[in-house]
């Protein structure tokens, strides 16, 4: 499998060249186009995948689209719904956690699991459903805005807002907490944050789509007007 990134970094999409028999699974709605010898299968069977639907679209999807090159090499173009960058991460018998809405696609050999043990129970009450991308293969996650890398040394700590968090590797420790009480959270626009401790790496986006939506609300018609 070969991948070309186009229109980086503001409007990134990927063009994936698949060898015969290779496949890539993608978030519903990510498809831009594909060559005629690529078959498309919509399935729920890939290790119980529950897709982390983009917050802008609302709801969740229990489906994943699998693109398979048949009868020769094939091409698939994939794009996230928001403008920004895409990260390609190579997994070598390890786990990458993708924040809610950040998963774009994954190659053969990557199992996608929404049941992240204590992680799900820890933050499920906040409506967050991160995915665990496990195994050996290539994973793609997308960011709204710029994509930044946070490298933490042993014992080094850093706090990220949940709306900006994109992904983190399984070597970094983390905990979650509320910023202030319920009233201050609602009024300030702040809420759940992640406290990370190294060694390890995390990735975050420079923009918050929900903040943009809130900023646009006063300018949008209401009650059918």
Automatic annotation (TrEMBL):
One matching Pfam family: AIM24
For this protein, the record's Gene3D superfamilies field holds: Mitochondrial biogenesis AIM24 (3.60.160.10)
What name does this protein carry?
TIGR00266 family protein
Organism the protein comes from: Halorutilus salinus
> What lineage is this protein's organism placed in?
Archaea, Methanobacteriati, Methanobacteriota, Stenosarchaea group, Halobacteria
């Amino acid at each position: 499998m070969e991948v070309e990134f186009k229109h980086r970094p503001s409007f990134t999409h990927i063009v994936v060249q698949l060898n015969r028999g290779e496949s890539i699974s993608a978030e519903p709605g990510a498809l831009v186009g594909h060559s005629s010898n690529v078959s498309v299968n919509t399935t729920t069977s890939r290790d119980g995948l529950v897709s982390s639907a983009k917050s802008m679209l609302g709801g969740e999807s229990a489906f994943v689209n699998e693109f398979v090159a048949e009868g020769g090499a094939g091409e698939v173009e994939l794009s996230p719904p928001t403008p920004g960058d895409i990260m390609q991460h190579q997994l070598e018998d390890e786990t990458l956690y993708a924040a809610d809405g950040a998963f774009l696609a994954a190659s053969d050999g990557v199992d996608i699991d929404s049941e992240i043990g204590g992680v799900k129970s820890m933050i499920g009450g906040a409506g967050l459903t991160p995915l665990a991308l496990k195994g050996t293969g290539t994973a793609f996650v997308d960011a709204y805005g710029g994509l930044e890398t946070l490298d933490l040394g042993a014992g080094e700590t850093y706090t990220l807002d949940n709306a900006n968090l994109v992904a983190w590797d399984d070597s970094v420790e983390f905990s979650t907490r509320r910023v202030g009480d319920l009233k201050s959270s609602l009024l300030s626009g702040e809420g759940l944050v992640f406290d990370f401790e190294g060694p390890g790496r995390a990735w975050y986006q420079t923009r918050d789509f929900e903040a943009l939506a809130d900023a646009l609300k006063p300018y949008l018609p209401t009650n059918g007007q």
